[in-house]
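Internal ticket #5521
Category: modeling
Description: The requester needs a full-assembly model to guide mutagenesis choices. All entity lines are attached below as received. Residue total reported by intake: 996.
Assigned to: D.W.
Attached entities:
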Amino acid sequence: VTDEYPEILLAEDNPNDVELTLEALAGHNLANRVTVAGDGVEAMDYLRCEGAFAGRPQRLPAVMLLDIKMPRKDGLEVLREIRDDPRLRRLPVVILTSSREEQDIITSYDLGVNAYVVKPVDFEEFMDAVERLGVFWALLNESPPEKD
Amino acid sequence: MGEPRATRKTDDRRDVPASRHFQRGLVAGFILLAALIVVVAFWGWSQQAGSIRSQAEANLMAVSELQADEIAAWLGERESDAESIRGDPLLAGAARQVAEETAGDGTVTHVRSRLASLQRNYGYLDVVLASPDGEILLREPAGMTHQLSATTQATIAEAARTGEVRSTGLYLAEDGDVRLEWAAPLLPEGPGGAVAGVVLLHADPDEYLYPLLDEWPVPTRSGESLLVERRGDEVVFISPLRHRAEAALRYTIPLARTDLPAAQAVQGAHGAVTGIDYRGVDVLAAAQSVPGSPWYVVAKVDADEILGPISSRGWTAAAFALVAVALAGTGTLLLWRRRESQVATALIAREREFASLFEGMMEGVATHELVRDAGGTPVDYLILDVNPAFAEQTGLAADEVRGRRGSEVFASELPPFLDEYARSVDTGSDQRLEGYVEPLGRHLQVSVTPQGGERFAAIVQDVTPAKLHEQELAASEALFRYVFENALVGMSMTEPTGEVHVNQALCLMLGYAPEDLRDKRWQEITPPEDIPEIEARLAPLLAGTADAARFQKRYLRKDGGIVWADVSTRLRRDDAGEPLYFITAVLDISHRVKAEMRISRLNEELEQRVADRTAELDAANKELEAFAYSVSHDLRAPLRHVSGFSALLSARAGDQLDDKSRHYVERISDSVNEMGTLIDDLLAFSRTGRKELSIERVDMDALVAEALAPLREDTRDRSVDWVVTPLPPTAGDRSLLRQVWANLLDNAVKYTRGRDPARVEIGALEEDHSNVFYVRDNGVGFDMEYAHKLFGVFQRLHSAAEFEGTGIGLANVQRIIARHGGRVWAEGATGEGAAFYFSLPRRRETPT
């Protein structure tokens, strides 16, 4: 992992999903820039360089792919904390979830999510979606400046 | 005629007792006033008498004191004259020379002139220079020639012996002269030395002493002062007396005569005393001792002089009292007369009144006289006189009855009321009678008043109509009582005091025996908490703002139970408008009320149950929501993984797999996709059940056109006849109704596959309370035997191979229509097409 390359934070508790997601991102050489957080708490520790990530250089990822249903702290809580934190609030966050629940979609947008993607059941479609997400947010999109 | 008139007069006087009272009061008042006048007069007089008497006493005291003082002063002067001579050595020396006859002419002249000056200056009768043995040496004035009395001689000897001044006191000399002398010894060698001679001072009581007693500072007619002295057992009057000549020193009385103030005085009495004087006349006196002497001054005045004014004033007071009493008597008499005339006037007026009353009164009056047989038993009565109203009250003309006997008038041996009349006459008391008089056919009310002797008056009133009315009233009362008592509904009569009278039905209703309810008040048969409300309902009746009231009321049974009653009550008033009683009809509605109460209790329970169920339903909905959420998340994830990993497998090992293996991988992939669809449909179905309806006006034509658009696109390569007739607008949730149309039309397209041309009809029927919409096709149809399964979840009548689908669509349609309050049904036959209907209630006001 080099400093020049943009980084992707994947918050996902299910190892199968992690594996499939990493597989999907492998195509554009994006997989090795992915950091995986097993739940909301770990994700917040990473972003704030706390706990297990205390020694990490202070640097925000280019995008965070966030699952909703996670143990300890769910995705919507994580999103709220990020938007309430002055240092983190501009971080691009994409909800990547199995839920098509209207309430989840509304809440996410109210909290200021950057995109909401429902994981397609069909693997081809899934691969396609994740790959496009990675390319768009990690490579095409211009990240917000580090300084306030 | 004279006798009854007298009686009558007496009676009339008795009728004006006020007059009698007045006269009695008048006499009593007069006596009282006269007594008062006498008492006042006597009191005033006695006050004056007391004051006159005490004034007189004070005067006498003052006079006696004054005179005693003056006499004492005079005596003192004489004493000091004598003392000054005794202490004169020159005179003493000269006197010795005279006595020894050695004196020259000059000396004799000197002594003479001294004696003469004494005599002249102090008013002595004469002044004598005597030798100690009583021989006169010199005398001034020389003209005096009387002998020295024995008393004088003795006194001179005493003075010469003692060398002290001596007085003779008042005494009667041998020649009958009253004398008073002082003997002053001359002491040429000073006190204690030999006596050269004695100077004798001869005072004149008539000139100096007695006049002092005549000096009365207050005017008096009989006032007199006297000097007395005690000598042994006697009292000696030593001054002249006005009413007794030559009394001085000659008149004495025994000491025991204490009725004389003089006797009292010498025995130490002091102040005012009463008694008789030397004349035997009643006097008022005051005594005073003269200091330095054995004398007493007694000042007295005749009692007449003092009592004279008192008695004259007494007469004046008596005269005044007499005049006052006479005036009061005259006044009383005048008042009496006036009253007499008033009473007489009143009597005349009353006579007139009586006459006019007799003539004009409404009641008939007849005067009678009782007729007795020889044995004194009353047998008949004579009618003396009747007034005009008598005819009216009895129907008997005055001419027919006046002067005739009762037995004649009434044509009966014993005329009406004879016994009662006789009793009134015998006892002298008034009576009231009432009775039916057969011969007259009338009911009469009679007041009997005895008039003295055998006479009596009867005041007669015809009460026949009133009697008839009374009887009718009694009959109607009885009828009312019968109706009241025997009515099948409860009846009560309630007095304003609250006391109730109830009928049998009400007794039965309340479980009381009739006698238990006697004297009970309605408040005692009413639950206490209901009383204020009932009072409020009765208030308008009592206030007169309402005639009747009807309400439901609870009664308290004797056994403590409650009776619900429908109560109608009306307030009866008397002629004056005062409330008499409430008449109340009471209907037992306990059964009805209990039923109503049960219904209301059941309703409450039902509401509670509904609330409980609603809560349960809410809980179930929540669970379902959670379930659906979990399905959408958790069920789809493994599916995705299966799909993902099988795809990865075929990508990685595709070349090495044989056809069979590749087929399996495809089957896995297809199954996964199918299950994904199922889950999505199921979630949609669950959402339609949970989603809040947002009702609005829906243009069904437009909605159908929207739903048709994608289908027209999909069936471009098929031949479909769309028959769309205009649809009525309706009210509902637009997006859900669109799903209904989409599902039904989707099905029609699906199940007409293979028909050429396929025909799909869309239309509506208007029923009474709802609009019925339908979609009819000429597709494969269905067997009506399974029609009931059409709308079940996951229920299908065709295999997936024939027609794809999950069996959720129609279940969803039914749920949406049911939520709109409508109904769904289908008609069809295998191979002959199907028709699906749904009805939506027509709302009275379709929102625009």
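Resolution: model delivered.
Comment from assignee: Chain A has a mean pLDDT of 86.
Ticket closed.
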